[in-house]
Amino acid sequence: MPFLIHINYQMERNGIPIPARFKDWAQTALRCARRRVGELSIVLVDEVEGRAINLQYRGRDDATNVLSFPIELGHHVRSALLGDLIICVPVIAREADEQNKKPADHYAHMVVHGTLHLLGYDHIEDAEAKAMETLETRILAKFGIADPYSEREA
């Protein structure tokens, strides 16, 4: 199998998509980014754990929707390992409600967004942001999910 996606629920699964959905979203992102192999972990956490991880690794004392931790093996090491995504379930639920989105659509967006970060995509510079957002939108459209950035641009 070219892709190996691990799903780890660190909280109750109620209202959270099943592992197959997370795997499908991540695998589609990898394929669309022209990856042939890849291994990553998706960990679903509560707000307390999400906040602690964000504080420890980014110095921000709040929980955020998705954190991406690319594997750091050095340029000379070839590996299918990509890294880890930490998804904060309460933040996803809150944002989906505030943005009038289906929770599953928002989960899909955050998995795609985080997976692209693991592959080196970023949105710091305007040109990088446009490229990343265009690819995210194309991937999400494969699932019938509307452009998550259209509201911002309207």
Write the layout of secondary structure elements.
Elements: E1 3-9, H1 19-32, E2 38-45, H2 47-58, E3 66-70, E4 81-88, H3 89-98, H4 103-118, H5 126-141, H6 150-153
Parallel strand pairs: 1-2, 2-4
Antiparallel strand pairs: 3-4
Helix pairs in contact: 1-4, 1-5, 3-4, 4-5
Going across the major beta sheet, what is the strand order?
1-2-4-3
Rg result: 15 Å
Please give the domain count. Answer: 1
Per CATH, the superfamily is Metalloproteases ("zincins"), catalytic domain
Q: Write the element-wise H/E pattern from the N-terminal end onward.
A: EHEHEEHHHH
User: What CATH first level would be assigned?
Assistant: Alpha Beta
Query: Which structural class fits the helix and strand makeup?
Result: alpha/beta
> N- to C-terminal separation?
41 Å
So what's the overall shape? globular
Number of helices, where a helix is a run of at least 4 consecutive DSSP H or I residues: 6
User: What's the story with the biggest beta sheet?
Assistant: 4 strands, mixed
* CATH-defined fold name: Collagenase (Catalytic Domain)
Average of per-residue pLDDT values: 93
CATH architecture: 3-Layer(aba) Sandwich
Q: What percent strand?
A: 15-25%
Proportion in helices: 40-55%
Uncertain residue ranges: none
Tally of DSSP β-strands: 4
Description:
- The protein is an alpha/beta fold and 154 residues long.
- It is built from 6 helices and 4 strands, in the order E-H-E-H-E-E-H-H-H-H.
- It has a single domain, classed as Collagenase (Catalytic Domain), CATH 3.40.390.
- Strands 1-2-4-3 form a 4-stranded mixed β-sheet.
- Helix 1 links the parallel strand 1 and strand 2.
- It is globular and about 40 Å long.
- The model has no long low-confidence stretch (mean pLDDT 93).
